[in-house]
């Protein structure tokens, strides 16, 4: 008994010591978890037939789960001592539960099947964390999980394959070898010959491990899952509240000005980095059309636009709705540009070359669904990365739309979405810079061509008023980091923004046009597209719009200090200065 107590004390102090060496701090309150680990371990061990096998099984399970700590130390995500204790104890509780169950299963085949299942679940968690680290050199985060959920399986597979390559094979081999080892070692774990009381005590130990598991479930690995559920809930809520938003818009919101007649066009680009556009000073001629257009008196090229996030869904959710980083509106209550335009009497059209994901997933399809007319030219819904057409087909599709008296057309391009070489026809293979960069630049060149065709077409319509183009986010093409919040850098948010106005609009809106010209160098984040588009269209409602967020308004607030990205987590000022 005395010896056991000493062992418990030894394990407790040992764990505490190791954690202190790693963390250089102690969280006194949470050390209780470590003490419980030590007590449960020694007590469970007491009931095992071959103690060495139990220790081996525990060591293997803990080794696997605790390898996740290495990722946390390799990535610059701050961690506290209590987080270490919590996850350590969670891992222990999980292993202890699995081992007790394995030990009491009498039949060897049942034992094997159980270990295989339990081991696979533990391994899956470990593999996901390590796999993401190998692919992105970052700690797994909610945004990555959400992006994976919103991505179809073909794209996810192709992405993993592109990013991990050989490492994927190593991981699969490791997975198989570890499972084999787990089965081999854990199946040897069995309980001693026990009396009825012995079984009751073991049951109590099992239950206590369960309590420990629940108490430590608020740890840094499981929290990713919990936060993802919250995110998803918010998106689902957005879809669910559609009718309520429309009802609210009709009943409670006063639209002071119903907007101007004419056709307004909003083009959402994809992954376009302005630093790779010659119109913004890139050394290769990737945007010959825009280079010329920059000096056209009807065109305004904005120099300091940034994206409000670095991934498509979060950006468009804010850009196309009343919600932005600077207000406190709940996303699910935030009316969309389409909904407001309709309420103001506009005919609305949504024209997209993006894959139309399952409507459960993203608010983009919910926003688009409100449009009077929708054209999705990408028929490969949900199954593949392919598109049927290059973006130019969207321009052809405009022929199916009869320009109305009062109309808003939104076009969603495939732009420079990964894989870049699939975004342009062979005739645009102009830049041969090694690897990705050449392909990316070709996609920018093709985008320039598409935009020239698009503007030519809409500007020829008699009642065309204006076109606004912005990219959802940028792409960290030079560092090869794509667009990932976990490895955030400023070049993921450097987006192009330009606007073209018909002379008729300029005459009717002389002050706004002059404001916009003056705002050429102002800072802007694309979650303010909602307010800015409403301003340009002449729709106003004191309940929905704020002139401080409308780039075309007299009162636009262009103070650099206020601008944020990553949903308010990063200050633009801080990253610009670096
Ligand atoms: Zn995107």
Question: Can you describe what's shown?
Answer:
Helix 2 (31-46) packs parallel to helix 4 (81-104). The protein has helices spanning 2-23, 31-46, 51-74, 81-104, 108-136, 142-150, 153-164, 166-186, 196-215, 222-240, 242-251, 288-293, 312-319, 337-343, 363-369, 392-397, 436-459, 503-508, 510-518, 529-537, 572-577, and strands at 257-258, 262-269, 299-302, 304-306, 347-352, 373-376, 406-412, 464-471, 497-501, 523-525, 539-540, 564-565, 570-571. Helices cover 51% and strands 10% of the residues. It has 21 helices and 13 strands. It is elongated and about 95 Å long. The chain has two domains: 2-220, no CATH class; 241-577, 3-Layer(aba) Sandwich (Alkaline Phosphatase, subunit A). The model has no long low-confidence stretch (mean pLDDT 89). Strands 3-9-8-2-7-5-6 form a seven-stranded mixed sheet, sandwiched between helices. Strands 1-11 form a two-stranded antiparallel ribbon. With 578 residues, it is of the alpha/beta class. The relative contact order is 0.11. The protein binds zinc ion. The site of zinc ion has 5 residues, from loops.
Strand content: 5-15%
The largest sheet, given as strand count, sense and whether it forms a barrel, is: 7 strands, mixed
Bound molecules: zinc ion
State the strand order across the main sheet. Answer: 3-9-8-2-7-5-6
Name of the CATH first level of the largest domain: Alpha Beta
**What is the domain tally?**
2
What structural class do helix, strand and pairing data support?
alpha/beta
Low-pLDDT runs of 5+ residues are none
Global Rg: 29 Å
CATH topology of the largest domain: Alkaline Phosphatase, subunit A
Say what oligomer this is: single chain
Total strand segments = 13
- The coarse silhouette is elongated
CATH superfamily of the largest domain: Alkaline Phosphatase, subunit A
Helical run tally:
21
Distance between the termini: 61 Å
Helix content: 40-55%
Q: Do you know the CATH architecture of the largest domain?
A: 3-Layer(aba) Sandwich
Kindly report the average pLDDT value.
89
